[in-house]
Amino acid sequence: MSSTSVVPETFDCRQAFVAELSALAREDPRIVAVCNDSVGSSNLVGFAAEFPDRMVNVGIAEQNMVGVAAGLANGGYIPFVCAAAPFLTGRATEQIKSDIAYNGYHVVLCGMSPGVAYGELGPTHHSIEDLSWMRAISDLLIVVPADPQQTRDVVRWAAQSDKPSYLRIGRVKVPAVTPVDAPFELGKALQLRDGGDVTLVATGVMVSRALEAADVLAAGGISARVLNMTTIVPLDEAAIVRAAVETKRIVTIEEARTTGGLGAAVAAVVVQAQPVPMRILGVAGFAPTGKAEFLYEYFGLTADGIAGAARELFA
User: Fold this and answer.
1) Which residues pair with 112 in a beta bridge?
2) Is residue 141 located within the same domain as residue 219?
3) What is this structure's pTM?
4) What is the pLDDT of residue 264?
């Protein structure tokens, strides 16, 4: 008798984002949304209908958008700046640095549909450099939720944090991976699976794929630990060092450039504290045009690709 596997339900984290943002706005009149003519793509249609006086649409003017948010924060509001990640981070880097981070304003920058979620629109719409760019800015917290539960928790945390932050809100649908009893803690990795042979450190939409890769490796006798590194800044250095000591091999997986994001951050810790063999998986060079799933396959960001990279560390 043949058995069939159950395909897990998947979710668009933008829906969890706007549901929590709307709930917060009902509780706190200081919550406002600022966007760059992206009400639809940021899933803010319902928010705009419910809170028309707290929806600021500046048009396609990202630098102005961030400047407006800084002014709102200076005036006592809590602005959530929502825009497609490549344009928010690429066009307004100077304003994010000088207007937001340098002043320490409580602005929540929400990079919508990051990575290669806009795959068929090509390199102009791939947001694969954002983690590198934002990591280079001092005093800016960077958080990448992995599923709807973490998205809701992170949005609520960001509203209460009183510090500037950059959230990566995924568009590619993902399964739920966070245990219901695991609240978000800034700077703390969430261990989703224990293992003693290799550690898979993933973030965002790659977390569920790392879990699938752990299953593939287990079938071949390799025990893989899986860490959901939700917070890129500040990084959970203790969890990384512990993984290096206990598993002696590390693979990082991210939907971003391999030169300045999660992998680079983890490698900096490993090389200084506990050098072990590593593989850094992500996007190398400009990503071509194509559906997100095609691009994941192209760059080895699949369960088999991740498992293959882990096996190389045993050679």
Assistant:
1) 84, 169
2) no
3) 0.96
4) 98
